[in-house]
Specification:
Elements (H helix, E strand, L loop, with lengths): L2 H16 L7 H9 L20 E2 L5 E2 L2 H11 L6 E5 L5 H7 L4 E6 L2 H13 L5 E5 L12 E10 L4 H4 L2 E11 L7 E9 L2 E10 L16
Parallel strand pairs: 3-4, 3-6, 4-5, 6-7
Antiparallel strand pairs: 1-2, 7-8, 8-9
Helix pairs in contact: 1-2
């Protein structure tokens, strides 16, 4: 496929996958319409970069399907002055989208090869307000906290306090919540409420689970 074909695929993604599925924020639509998704997948997958499903990547990671990602981004209501943390950023696509909306973006990923790929692609796209770093996903990146917005790119059984504590007082965290006994995940927002954190359900979503966010099982003897 050439650049024109990819541009047409990108437009079709916005018009046929995002707009019909309650994505109405023009800033979000413009971000998805301007970031070359094909650059963030292996060359062998570029022809299917814009399909409406999750794309498997190396190291057990995946790229979240555009509709779910766009609705999570829209729910976060990212503003131009915000600092954003993307957790499980894989090859950097979600970070690139956020970079179009926010002041600064950090994408944290545990796989060194994915961090390298992500940083190279972000630079190639001219996004100098986003950076990829290597680290444990459940630890976040406290060095640059607090963040006004945090996005976890995958489903989780629980969100650790270490991440929630990196939110600013009025911050929001978005992820797909899926405990082990739930057949379907629920896209959700976490925010501070009465000295703790509350989860607000948004919509059902089925995306791959991040292994790092599985809860530890207790053995009963």
């Amino acid at each position: 496929m050439d650049d024109l074909q990819f541009a047409n695929s990108r437009k079709n993604m916005v018009d046929c996958q995002l707009r019909p599925n309650k994505v109405t924020d023009e800033r979000v639509l413009d971000a998805f319409g301007s970031i070359p998704r094909e650059q963030f997948v292996p060359r062998s997958q570029r022809a299917i970069a814009y399909v409406d499903e999750d794309l498997p990547l190396s190291g057990g990671r995946s790229m979240m399907e555009p509709m779910v990602l766009s609705r999570l981004v829209q729910a976060l209501e990212v503003q131009a002055h915000h600092s954003v943390l993307v957790v499980g950023g894989s090859t950097g696509y979600a970070a690139a989208i956020m970079a179009r909306l926010a002041d600064s973006v950090i994408s944290i990923e545990a796989r060194a090869q994915l961090v390298e790929k992500s940083q190279e692609t972000l630079v190639a796209c001219g996004l100098d307000n986003a950076v990829a770093v290597k680290g444990r996903l459940t630890d976040g990146f406290a060095k640059e906290a607090p963040y006004q917005r945090i996005l976890i790119e995958g489903s989780v059984e629980a969100v650790p306090d270490a991440l929630l504590d990196q939110l600013s007082p009025d911050g929001l965290l978005a992820a797909v919540w899926r405990p082990s006994d739930h057949p379907v995940g629920v896209a959700s927002l976490w925010s501070r409420s009465a000295g703790s954190f509350a989860r607000k359900p948004l919509f059902d979503a089925q995306v791959p689970r991040l292994d790092e966010f599985r809860t530890k099982r207790e053995f009963v003897f």
